[in-house]
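User: Hi! I'm a student and our assignment asks us to look at how structure tokens line up with a sequence. Could you show me two examples?

Assistant: Happy to help. In each example below, the sequence comes first and the structure tokens follow. Example one:
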Amino acid sequence: MSTAILTGPPAPGSSLDGDLRSLGFDVRIASGAEEVGTLLAAVPAGERVALVDPRFVGHPHALRLALTDPRFPAAAAPGALTAQREARPALARALDAVSATPGAAGTDTLTDGLTDALAEALDADGVAVHRPQLGTLVATVPTDAEARHAARAAVEAVDDEAVRLRSAVKAHDGFFTTFFISPYSRYIARWCARRGLTPNQVTTASLLTALIAAGCAATGERGGYIAAGVLLLVSFVLDCTDGQLARYALKYSTMGAWLDATFDRAKEYAFYAGLALGAARNGDDVWALALGAMILMTCRHVVDFSFNEANHDATANTSPTAALSSRLDSVGWTVWARRMIILPIGERWAMIAVLTATTSPRIVFWALIIGCAFGACYTTAGRVLRSLTRKAKRTDRAAQALADLADSGPLAGITGRIFGRAGLQLLPGFVSALIAAGVLVPAVLGRPFGAAGTVVAAALYVMFAGAAVARPLKGALDWLVPPLFRAAEYTTVLVLAARSDSPHALPAAFGLVAAVAYHHYDTVYRIRGGTGAPPAWLVRVTGGHEGRTLLVTVLAALLADRGDDFTLALTALAVAVALVVLVESIRFWVSSGAPAVHDEGETA
């Protein structure tokens, strides 16, 4: 239970008491600043507390946004202030300071403006007070009868529920999601909220639906493919609904953040596996295409993540390319066209569903690879142009984020220190990473399976990978270092498995890349939450990208004549990586210290 303290008796005819109780607050009424302090001290330290001016006039949803969002330690709107457990000590200090100020609003008999004064005091004390954008919603403290009448008229003029429904929809979404899903999924979200369902339950339902869809695709029959396509769309509707439910009801949680961050990729990649299994039942081996599509999708996301992290807090962050993009955004239709051509998640899942129901898995994967390759080239080229033309100065935080995304293990650390001590880290990180990938990938593609030259190329890859991270990644194109490492590692596993004489090597490689990709996605969302990368021991245990790459090439060389043993080795490695990263990830995301970070802007 949360407690709301009215800093005085509410005005006659006011619905404020009822509005606060409907939001889950236990309402208490104070008669002055001294009693506010007494009531505040009586609230258990672990509970949320809100202070509300009794003259407040506004929409219930304005109060909901200001007082119940769990993501912010402190939040405020005109006449209303809330503090969660971590901000309670600062609130007590602010109340003492405001009450002790001569002529302050917070006196024993007059508490006019107390909440706003406390919000300013919290800001001054270093506690960031979130102030939600209310838009057309009303939140005001009228000072006389005429102003109160005008405020109530303004409240009546705006439909609180309509605004709440609109705000439940993500602001920047793809064309398909915006026009074909959100117009009705928001009402599903409201239906769920009114029946007490949580976003986590809807997210789980979306996952289960997608897994059933994958199972239907794995049958290899036309009826199964049709059912799979329909269920995949249903899963996507639920995927949109869970976020809309979280925004509608302001039910954010650390567990929800973890589910939201990982289940989209789990659903999509599980469906790829189902399609590959279904094709195999009909004698068509498309595991290489399935793995290729997963690699392309993951590398594309790493490009997005790395670029955004590199420029998250860069100074002088402008370029002619960015200016052109802004001008294009002013022309309405270009916004939708540019969102659609990158094949974001809505368009992509719709295409997968339709093609699954009407064609074959092979066509589905080729359409995915072609479409996503075009989208990746389009976005990456634009970002390279921006990086080369802008005069941005990147921060230490950005360089550290890129180093964490690189996922460099002990071998890269050793070679990096050697390069550093010898003063040989002359090349920019991007150039060293490009050389590393340029040495490894052609060797894997051009040499027979298990050739000793591939192991030599992998050893050189380790050396240049270490050189790439030997100094801070602050160069204009250093954000490409993590994507280059991902492409090199994943492609090596794909090519070696495809050239093995074991028919089950590719499914095992699919499992290995999926486990490693999960680790990399998990790293991204931890960084976004402000907690940094996974613990160093996890990166050491999993070997880092260069250690895993070298290990797979060595296994291919040692087991070149025993394809089944190579498959078994890939399977064992996949299981080991999956167990380690999943256990640590679950421990982190369900811990009380994990941030409730929800993806509000990602469309891919």
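Example two works the same way, sequence first and then tokens:
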Amino acid sequence: MKPTDSAVPVHTLRRLAALPVLPPAVVAAAAVAAAAGVARALAEGRALFPGGPAGWAFALLTGLVVGHLVALGRDRWWGGTCSGAALTLAVLLMYGWVAAVLVSLAVVVLVATARRHRRRRAAVHGAVDILGIGAASLSLAASGVRPGIEHPWLPATWDLATVFQITAAAAAYLLTTRGLLWVCVGPHTRGLRSVARMTLVRQGLVGVALLGISPLIVLVAAGPRPVLLPLFAIPLMALDSTLWIARARAEEQLRDPLTGLNNRQWLLERTRAALDEAERVGRRAALVLIDLDRFRSVNDTLGHLAGDRLLLQVADRLRLALPRGAEVARLGGDEFAVLLPLADSPTGAQRVARLLVASLSAPLDLDGLSLVLEASAGVSVFPDHATDGEGLLRRADVAMYQAKRDRSGVEVYEAHRDGNTPDRLGLLGDLRRALDSGQVKLHYQPKVAFDGRVAGLEALVRWVHPERGRVSPDEFIGIAETSGLMPRLTEYVLETALAQVARWRAMGIDVPVAVNVSPRDVHTPGFAGSVAARLARHNVPAGSLQLEITEHVLLEDPQRAADTLAGLTGHGVKMSLDDFGTGYSSLVHLRRLPVSELKIDRSFVARLAVDAEDAEIVRCTLDLAHSLGLVVVAEGVEDDETWERLRALGCDAVQGWLVSAAMPPEEATAWLRGRGAREGFAAAALPPRTPRTGGIGGVGGAGGVVGRAAGGAASGTPAPSRPSATRPLLP
């Protein structure tokens, strides 16, 4: 059944709704059975518990067992001790089920009294034990054994038949009690392999204790010295301690030692069980991966002990913010994961993730120091994004890093933004080979002033795959950015563009060419020096190269970005701020950026003629940029009306299909020769403005990439026919 937001089938709802009723039903059934047994014994004038030395010895042994269980602490004894089970079965074998019920009730009631906050849970465990005793008693009765206070069962010979009777009774007791506890108490651990293995080992030890110790207790109680019964407390306590240690070690394998939260192993196993349940009921499940932003700076500044205390506070906040049914785990470092076993939709899961991230945004107190941490989260949904726990975790990780890059807080996984799918990995290998063989080509799109003179060209990447055909630049550039191939692609584009500039200069065509560079390029050590070396090798003046950056370069390591940009402008390379208006920085930060040109994003230009707000944004941008001495270029100009509005607003140059689509080098050469003969090239195209080489300030937005095509040409589709093909661009 495919996941849907519609209602769950009626029979499934009834089955799920019945689970909360089961524990009270078990308690009621056990109470009725115990009351009926006691009433029948009293009505028949039979004793409820043995007297004499054996009775007192059993009572003393019971007290010792209770004292040990209370001393264990942390309620570890619930649902799996050897001592209580062995003692109960021994009394059952010798004196019948009514006496065994009284021993079981004494153990449960006394321990519950010592732990008042566990009374409700104690009632469930006591009821389950009573029903288990009843099942064992029925097993004995089926083989003809009906022990009682007046007629204890003392086998004449310990042959195979006797061993079978005791084994059958012990098996009935274990299967009934542990089965009911598994259903009533442990719904969240069902399906966890580690828990299942731990449970099997523990119940195996309990079974060994029942088969090995219970008959010995019977023999001593029936012998001449029943006063020796309390000595059995020593092996029983040793077995309980062994179980306690085994369970503690097993739980440590599923717990984070610092925060006490579940760990990665537990998360994967619990996710597998949750996905099985979600598939069975036809619902979605979701995984939210949360990572703290800039947590490393806390460790570096305040020390790792302070960082650990901070993680404890984060874990507590996540616990409190969890919606009902959700479970949280710490994966390591500052990464946390939240499992949503039932999710209505990807949007609903994203809403939960936003609430969790918001819960971490309030100030945290650390030794009197108020710290504000931000977090990023990624969401993946079953079965929309993956059908297994590992796949969900990996895709949530991809979405989380996308949220970090975009500064959006929370992102839902999107396949087209994942560079690690098999198809995209294959495309990555093809791109590497294409760069080596020169299959990747550069096209050039002009930037033209309103007097018709050419202000420059932008180099845009084009790739025609031998099997896939034309590949969108957005697709393969995104793969390059997420795979580490981006520096190689940038080197290829710079080398190819500068070689073409050198050829044009040899033809007498002196026009600057702009190349987009990514934030990764700017943050690469030695990038400015490598650009200067390429300019010298091709004998191209620095003024013939323009590098287009975006505000995104300022998001990480702004000091390194500042040093790189200062180095580039120091070599004489011009800088242009691309996609302006789509990031997070304020216009006032422009005065601190070392750029001489600003490009208004096409998202504002496209609706300039019909949207008053976009027109006002463009006007304000032009006024401020000009006041700072910047040249302004409008991207995505596709019609005459937009052209005229931009000219009226005082824009310096335009780029887009109205002027020309991106052209291969041969067509660009012919186009430049035609324009240059009539109108002249870049030197006379624009009014002089004062370039600046200031520092960097503020934060950035979307990252610039090599091959971005202004005016929509980045899609790789041919440009439509435009009026500019026939009319001159002179005013």
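Here is something you could point out in your write-up. The first helix runs from residue 10 to 18.
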